[in-house]
């Protein structure tokens, strides 16, 4: 059976998602949303994201994408491709791809849903969320909030997008060119 794939990410200005193996911010409302979305589900992540966690995410099945499937990650399954990870995921509901860059790139080609937390602030970072074709996605939910990060009030948005149905041969559904880079 083909699994429903969802992408989850928290993204600051310029698409920044990580720095030196860590998240550059601590945003409790985003952590709560992440937990609500992924609890009791399967989460799939790259090896660096796994290493940044320091152990498995509780109450979830953890799958780590790694080119060496013989590697041991205690508390997680280690798999060498996203397709194989989706095939072995044992929890019900969607499979959540939670980062980093390459897992998101691959998941964006097949995912039905994107859950993005947009953090309206500049951070220094070395990993970005991939650019994606915004015309392929329809926003279905937006919730705006504000919370201090390092003592500075910071605006954020919880955004949910679903993939638009593509209708071959229909002019009205022809996608417009352009990509979203989540910059600014
Ligand atoms: N803001 C957020 O929401 C968020 C979420 C998650 C992580 N992060 C941050 O992002 C950074 C980590 O992301 P990253 O992009 O550097 O690393 P990553 O994707 O987590 O891990 C990279 C490793 O995973 C392997 N890998 C990735 N995709 C694979 C695939 N499809 N099949 C097999 N192996 C695969 C890579 O193998 P190869 O070397 O062969 O490519 C590499 O060894 C950290 O700073 C972390 O804190 C932020």
Automatic annotation (TrEMBL):
Residues 4-163 form the DHFR domain. Its EC number is 1.5.1.3. GO terms for cellular component: cytosol. The keyword NADP applies. GO terms for molecular function: dihydrofolate reductase activity; NADP binding. PANTHER family: DIHYDROFOLATE REDUCTASE. This is Dihydrofolate reductase. It comes from Solirubrobacter phytolaccae.
